[in-house]
Design brief:
The complex is a heterodimer of chains A (218) and B (220). By secondary structure, chain A is mainly α. Chain A contains seven helices and no strands. Classes of the chains: A mainly alpha (218), B mainly alpha (220). The interface between A and B is medium-sized, with 29 and 30 residues.
Chain lengths: 218, 220
């Protein structure tokens, strides 16, 4: 993956969404008003996070089989990058909530579950720090990562649907695409998702490569 | 059918060991009784919502204490001995089954005692609340058994047990509290079918993942 075309593509897509997302026409909706533009920034964060966590689990599964150090580092670094995007997703969501729901944090189920699913990954990092021996750490952390992943899926995608929530797509509220993600918004939204996922992957590869270099110097 | 035989023997071993010392049983019972008593002293009268939340908080900590020891307290020598005799699948199945049995027993005793001290709220569907308690203890034991196995490998298990298990147990606890609240309010039983289904699915996922992962975890 040393080819650069996809990095240029990622940068171009994100610059395009920043410009087009703020300048292009959006549907006029009550309450949401202009904050609907946050859709281009808030939702792609979660897509990027889920993609990075999936990469992390994939390499955890592989590292159990191969016992290779590189797979372990890949797993932990993609989880690190995923946590960055998770925090960004919570922050963008909190800002959006301030202007539509009235408070940064209103203890909405969706907000709580997003925070708890980040806690899962903090626990994963604590577990890693608790074990000194590298091979053992790789194995046990991989097992916890695989064990925690289905719980994260339940937290983010199943539970909020069962509870009363202000968040679109949950608690009986219609999701965005059913009424206002019209074709104009799609033209910015899909490139934004792709762009941020690629940026996330780029962050992860950079972290992975620095970590490998650091380990070589030891 | 070798697996079933091994599981049967391991569960028998656990029960005999437990019966000899009665450590978990008495310890947790004492813990539950004293907590309920302290709560009674401080609350005197509690409203419905607190009644439900309090019960689940007590059960959460009781089950962490009871199940944490299932792997943490095995000595290294005995673990090695067990590992030479049985397959990893048999070990994790036996531990989970044994913990489930222990937890169901403890939860039912705890619930009976709890409802003696704080009466069941009026109009509660008592049978359904017992179903919720049993399902809850099942879910606690499947999750905590695996987490205890992970924590026991790290050396300083007691502290990590709480850190590792709380984020995993919170989704289950939320579903359980909702289910138990439905039962407590005496809602129609069909209302809770969603929660029962979700709990069953979570338990099946956890058991499958534990069965797949434990063989990698058990040998050093």
């Amino acid at each position: 993956m040393h080819k650069t075309w996809w990095k240029i593509l990622a940068a171009a897509l994100v610059i395009y969404t920043a410009i087009a997302g703020l300048l292009l026409e959006v549907p006029r909706l009550a309450i949401l008003n202009e904050t609907i533009r946050n859709l281009y920034f808030h939702v792609p964060m979660w897509f990027a996070m889920v993609v990075l966590f999936t990469i992390s689990v994939w390499y955890s599964v592989r590292s159990l089989g191969t016992q290779s150090e590189a797979d372990d580092i890949r797993a932990v670094e993609s989880a690190n990058a995923g946590v960055i995007f998770g925090i960004l997703g919570i922050v963008t969501g909190a800002v959006w909530a301030k202007f539509t729901w009235g408070q940064f944090w209103s203890f909405d189920p969706k907000q709580n579950f997003a925070a708890i699913s980040l806690l899962l990954y903090f626990a994963y990092f604590v577990l890693r720090n608790a074990i000194d021996e590298e091979q053992k750490r790789a194995k046990i952390a991989a097992i916890y990562n695989i064990f925690a992943f289905p719980m994260m899926v339940v937290l983010l995608f199943v539970l909020p649907r069962l509870q009363d929530s202000l968040h679109p797509g949950n608690g009986g509220n219609p999701g965005f695409n059913s009424y206002d993600l019209d074709s104009r918004m799609r033209m910015v939204f899909y490139p934004a998702c792709l762009g941020w996922i690629l940026i996330g992957y780029w962050v992860y590869t950079l972290r992975f490569r620095t970590k490998i270099l650091e380990n070589k110097q030891l | 059918m070798q697996l079933a035989q091994q599981v049967k023997h391991l569960i028998r071993k656990e029960i005999i060991l437990e019966w000899r010392s009665k450590y978990a049983l008495n310890g947790v019972l004492l813990y539950v009784v004293s907590t309920v008593f302290v709560c009674y002293m401080s609350f005197q009268i509690i409203d419905k919502i607190t009644w439900n939340a309090l019960f689940w908080i007590i059960m959460l900590f009781a089950s962490i204490n009871a199940i944490a020891k299932s792997f943490l307290q095995e000595s290294k020598g005995r673990q090695l001995y067990i590992y030479t005799l049985v397959s990893p699948a048999a070990l994790i199945i036996a531990k989970t089954l044994y913990n489930s049995l222990l937890m169901i027993l403890l939860t039912i005793i705890a619930l009976i005692f709890y409802s003696l001290v704080f009466d069941f709220p009026k109009g509660a569907d008592i049978l359904m609340y017992f179903v919720a308690a049993v399902l809850g203890s099942l879910s606690f034991s499947t999750i905590f058994t695996m987490v205890s196995a992970i924590a026991s490998k790290t050396g300083n298990g007691g502290m990590l047990m709480a850190i590792l298990s709380f984020p995993i147990i919170i989704p289950v606890l939320i579903v359980l509290i909702k289910f138990a609240k439905n039962a407590m309010d005496g809602l129609d039983r069909s209302v809770s079918l969603d929660e029962i289904g979700l709990l069953a699915v979570i338990n099946v996922i956890v058991m499958t993942v534990a069965l797949l992962l434990f063989p990698y975890l058990w040998r050093d």
